[in-house]
Amino acid sequence: MFLGRVVGRVWASVKNPGLTGQRMLIVQPLDANLASAGKQLICADAAGAGAGELIYWVRGREASFPFTEADVASDATIVGIVDEVHTGKQEAQS
């Protein structure tokens, strides 16, 4: 799983029939420090994410797992919304 932030959405009038009714969002991948890490990508949304939300997403074969009943052709899918991030770094005490 990877961290990302929703930065936009995609509207498509022509698409794979398995994607009918599926939301497609533009995601900026992030590193562990929540800094941009790579090019933006388009993800199917299985979690109901909104603009600006911190999410986690999967790629590859696992991207189609949240849509087991439908035949969704997806290579990247948002599978969760992140509430908090703990990096394990301890803050310096003054």
Question: Mind explaining what this structure looks like?
Answer:
- With 94 residues, this protein is mostly beta strands.
- It is built from no helices and 5 strands.
- It has a 5-stranded mixed beta barrel.
- The chain starts with a strand and ends in a 13-residue tail after the last strand.
- The mean pLDDT is 86.
Largest sheet: 5 strands, mixed, barrel
- Strand pairing plus helix content: what structural class? mainly beta
- The percent range for helix content is under 10%
Q: Give the N-terminus to C-terminus distance in angstroms.
A: 36 Å
Domain unit count: 1
Write the layout of secondary structure elements.
Elements: E1 2-10, E2 24-30, E3 41-45, E4 54-59, E5 76-81
Parallel strand pairs: 3-5
Antiparallel strand pairs: 1-2, 1-4, 2-3, 4-5
Offer a concise description of the structure.
The protein is mainly beta and 94 residues long. The protein is built from no helices and five strands.
Defining traits:
single chain; 94 residues; mainly beta; OB fold (Dihydrolipoamide Acetyltransferase, E2P); five-stranded mixed beta barrel; 5 strands; 35% strand
